[in-house]
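My hope is that you will study the record closing this message with an eye to the fold:
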Amino acid sequence: MSAVKIIDFQNSTAPTSTSVVESERRLSGAPEQSLQNMYASAAKELLSGTWSSEVGKWSVDYSQRHEFCYLIEGHIVLADEDGEESTFKTGDAFVIPVGFKGSWEVIEPVTKYYVIYNVA
């Protein structure tokens, strides 16, 4: 039997993928994003890693997941469907609960640690 290994983000060799927010979700800009998923549970209900994005704004729908975020760098504004805004900067941590819908705006290029729990 092999021992379960700790996932060390600082020494990860997980591949990094890059993309641009899909045009149908973009509200401003065409932000390039990078993702390094460093952990996925067997059923993929729990994911964790780092994510980065350039400046831009797009719609988000958290109908099927919760997300914990810790901003390593940058400045963002999340706005819900009613227009209520929450602002976060380097060093801030927050949770986006399942059911949140609104927009994600990157004011200054951002990098975050994330933990996602998929409920469906």
In short: The beta strands are 17-20, 26-28, 32-40, 46-53, 56-61, 65-80, 85-89, 93-96, 101-118.
